[in-house]
Batch of 2 targets.
Target 1
Amino acid sequence: MSDIFDKFKMNGQVAVVTGAAGLLGRQFSRTLAQAGAAVVAADLNGAVVEQLAAELQAEGLTAVPAQVDVTDPRSTEAMVETALKAFGRLDVLVCSAAMDPKFDSANQSRQSANAFETYPLEAWRQALDVNLTGLFLCAQAAVKPMIAQDHGVIINICSTYGLVGPDQRLYERPGQPKQYKPVFYSVTKAGVLGLTRYLATYYAGTGIRANALTPGGVYNNHDETFTKAYSARAVLGRMARQDEMNGAILFLASDASTYMTGANLVVDGGWTAW
């Protein structure tokens, strides 16, 4: 019998992480690389993932960058081809690229135009293109080598707001225009779960698994008002630290979760338990 810790080792496996320039994408890329995987750090911001890959390489880890527009099928195919040319296979796809309006101190003032009644159709369509069509295109490109290998893992990043509606009271500020978490975020994140379950059942009986990871709110320089209000709603009484999804992503990507597909792993500090 193998040691339980061997199941978490990713040696010899190749992972593509989209949204790798983002808060969690950077964490996911580093975690999988530290576990032994060769990582393709992919993002629309090519300069940032080039820097990230260089940092990982300097730490003795294996990583290459890839600039990708997840709304463009030619770009997602090229991303997968980058993995195949560099490493000869693709074992894990982590879909972390998404539009997510930020309510940290640097971006909070921009979120006063998100009222449902006047939300622009163009903005709605753009968000669906990135948050849903992007996952569709990335998975469509990635499953081709996975089918040939009869092995692959797809991990789609969801949100608690794909499970429950946003508490808009969290975004209110006295004396300021009313702010909202926009409609597209809840709708697209709920769709992520539907796509995940579809992929899991579509590839039933094969070596391909698909699961979702649902993080709670991760602290990223949010103002004190938001942090206190959010923390009061979490059972653990705080927002997540940036590294607190890393164990979950490694579990889902590795052989530690081989009897798991079509599932949603919720790591939200108890937010949805009330």
Note: The chain has one domain: 4-269.
Target 2
Amino acid sequence: MDYMENMKQAISYINGIYNEGLEIGIVLGSGLGGLGERIENPTIIPYEDIPGFPVSTVEGHKGQLILGQLSGKNVIAMQGRFHYYEGYPLEQVVFPIRTILGLGIETLIVTNAAGGVNEDFTPGDLMIIEDHINFTGQNPLIGKNLDSIGPRFVDMTKAYDRELMKLAFKVGEKLNIPLQKGVYMWFTGPTYETPSEVRLARTLGASAVGMSTVPEVIVARHSGIKVLGISCITNMAAGILDKPLNHEEVIETSLMVQDKFEKLIIEIISNI
């Protein structure tokens, strides 16, 4: 069975369980899955039940879809994403995103836990992603183009929707939640970046580094879907502070900012 047929099967399976019109998709990063508990009238679908879906293997990623209402909008949230470093080919990494897009959403909100490269940042900051750098040499659109979904060559000039960015800052000001903005740089992982790689990232204009998000944004833009990206700065990247990096700190900081993160997302959604 080819990729498109697998995707159609996944979409059909989800529609058979939940057939309300969906407006907004949300990808919840490491330690940020708590927002899923705020979704009203939830329908929960484990990834393992969905045809063609990979299975999340990373701590802090529950591995399920939650469909329901948030701020009066019909949403679908991914509690757990997939990463290239887990060993999946990129077309599988983005398969769940392709499926969500195929369910008819108009806006995708992607979130992640990231290492701060900008030395003015502190752990716990929320950064609105204004652009990204793909430093991996990989791209989920390599291979035969899915012509029924989008064009062969995709314009990434405004990968992150300018109006959604403005809305995020307006909401942040209203809720008294300070927001940073900057460029996210994608490394494959699973190793954390070296101090030299972090210096290179800063030289190239990156504000934060991480191991996800970019392939999801690429396929969303391939489908013409508007994207808002938010990074939770969970730690300062290697070489900035004289301390080792670990995933436990990432989860711990994500949980520390969970309340303001959830308030921000909920209010943004209510204004979309």
Note: The chain is about 30% helix and 25% strand.
